[in-house]
Design a protein that fits this description.
The protein is of the alpha/beta class. It has helices spanning 3-19, 22-29, 49-58, 60-71, 100-103, 145-156, 176-190, 201-213, 217-225, 242-257, 278-284, 297-310, 317-326, 331-347, 354-367, 374-385, 399-415, 420-426, 432-448, 450-463; strands at residues 33-38, 41-46, 76-84, 91-98, 166-169, 196-200, 229-233, 261-266, 288-291. The chain binds adenosine-5'-diphosphate (ADP) and magnesium ion (MG). Magnesium ion binds next to helix 7. Adenosine-5'-diphosphate (ADP) is lined by residues 133, 137-139, 144, 170, 172-178, 303, 331-332, 335.
């Protein structure tokens, strides 16, 4: 970089740093790199289109002023975007141009008015959006920042951003369905003429099966190909249905080629999707894959405050803190606690204080216990006696192995709702009579052998942890 360019660029950065929040400056602006200044064109390298769209969408005036101030108001700016090619080391560079002076009059993305508001077309499509989920009641936080901003950007300009498809993933209850619907609702509000459709993967699959049965598969595909913004929730539910996913693949290609917007959610990253064809998974990664992370403490508090005040509940700061610190995994769980608080305070006319909140938390955490499985029983028993898990599946008649097998059968009978033949199937491929016999032997020994009894009790208490 020549020294004049470096100096002017540093002055630009200085101006931006003075005008935006420090986190914004370090996240979005320090990653830009000026490459050259030739023919009055400033070439800037950015790691992705997302960065540019974010800056232009949110900090255009600061960015523009900084550049015009230091490089002159007739400067042209062009970007080199590094496009990561999947599965290959090479990077392709592509440019796009904008002239700060011309953009000056453009409203920031947040204020773009749809051209179509004057004459909205009559829609004959039920978008199936869930109206209660919108951006107004979607609380912003660090953990949902990336996905939310991408969603808001899409709603402004569906099909015409680099976030196509937008693939949102995250564990249960973190807000995927809410965000998907919020994007759909905003898109409809800004572009009433667009055909927006929200559908769960399960419903998509059911409709597909139905179409196959009634020989209407062409109509089915054709219908989906007329959609402008297709929002599909819970993509993991398509795994294991190759024909449904294959049909989705064709619809996806058609829509994507025609610059229609696709938005998907899933409980895991595309790379962890099993039983879905690689060619489809590759496509999921074409646009933006964004994670909705578990809500952090700050967001949990904000959500609690917002939801309790909407419900008209008066809750003190220390109660909010207590709940936010203890319910950490999902927003759905937070809502569960609020619902209980509401019930207690209205039904029992109890004041919502720390004691009540703690009681409710204790009850809720009991409900969340994971159900016991036969695998856990086998593992814990083998662990306790230090026997390899595989050993109990063999025909071995060695005393230690027989004992471990019998205790596993006994505990499975006692703690699971399994028939004796099912237990036999899981443990050593034995028949139901053998399982019954094993249970009786263990019961008898428990009565006469104190050490044995202690061992079995230890194992049983370890099943609860
Ligand atoms: P997921 O689809 O990821 O399982 P949902 O979208 O169904 O999760 O969210 C669970 C509940 O939590 C919903 O009632 C939703 O409104 C609420 N929720 C999730 N995230 C937020 C948020 N950021 N602000 C407000 N409510 C939220
Ligand atoms: Mg959901």
């Amino acid at each position: 970089m020549n020294s004049e360019l470096k100096e002017k660029w540093n002055a630009c950065l200085g101006f931006i740093r003075d005008n935006v929040e420090p986190a914004v400056y370090s996240t979005w602006f320090t990653i830009l790199e000026p490459l050259s200044l030739e023919n009055n064109t400033l070439l800037i390298q950015a790691p992705s289109n997302f960065v540019i769209e974010y800056i232009e969408g949110n900090y255009l005036s600061e960015f523009q002023s900084a550049i015009c101030k230091n490089f002159g108001s007739d400067i042209k700016v062009s970007y080199n975007i590094i496009v990561d090619k999947m599965n290959s080391q090479s990077t392709t560079v592509r440019s796009q141009e904008f002239q700060p002076a011309q953009i000056k009059g453009t409203k920031p993305m947040g204020n773009v008015t749809p051209l179509t508001t004057d004459a909205p077309q009559v829609q004959d499509l039920d978008s199936m959006l869930i109206h209660k989920y919108n951006f107004d009641n979607f609380i912003e936080g660090y953990s949902n920042k990336m996905a939310r901003i991408a969603g808001e950007t899409i709603a402004q300009n569906p099909g015409n951003t680099s976030f196509n498809p937008l693939f949102i993933h995250g564990s249960s209850g973190v807000g995927k369905t809410h965000l998907l619907n919020a994007i759909g609702m905003k898109t409809k509000e800004l572009h009433p003429d667009k055909r927006v459709l929200y559908v769960s993967s399960h419903l998509f699959h059911v409709q597909y099966i139905d179409a196959v049965r009634s020989n209407n598969i062409n109509d089915f595909i054709h219908f989906y190909q007329t959609i402008d913004v297709l929002i599909i929730d819970d993509m993991q539910e398509l795994s294991g249905y190759p024909r449904t996913t294959n049909t989705f693949f064709h619809i996806f290609n058609h829509l994507h080629q025609n610059k229609k917007q696709l938005i998907m959610s899933c409980d895991r990253h595309p790379k962890d999707l099993k039983d879905i064809e690689e060619r489809l998974i590759t496509r999921f990664k074409w646009g933006l894959v964004a994670e909705l992370e578990r809500p952090d403490l700050e967001l949990r508090k904000e959500i609690l405050k917002d939801k309790t005040s909407r419900d008209g509940l008066e809750v003190s700061e220390d109660v909010i803190e207590l709940i936010a610190e203890n319910v950490t995994d999902s927003v759905r769980d937070l809502e569960g606690v609020i619902a209980s608080l509401m019930a207690y305070s209205t039904i029992y006319k109890k004041e919502i204080n720390l004691e009540l909140a703690q009681q409710i938390l204790n009850k809720n955490s009991k409900k969340e216990e994971k159900p016991l499985t036969i695998e856990t029983i086998i593992n814990k028993v083998c662990d306790y006696y230090d026997i390899p898990v595989d050993a109990i599946q063999t025909k071995s008649r060695k005393h230690e192995i027989v004992q471990v097998r019998q205790i596993s059968m006994y505990l499975a009978k006692k703690h699971l709702d399994f028939s004796t033949s099912k237990i036999g199937m899981y443990i050593g491929k034995r028949d139901h009579a053998t399982v019954l016999h094993a249970c009786n032997i263990v019961k008898d020994q428990l009565e006469v052998d104190k050490n044995f009894k202690k061992d079995v009790e230890n194992i049983e208490s370890s099943l609860k942890s």
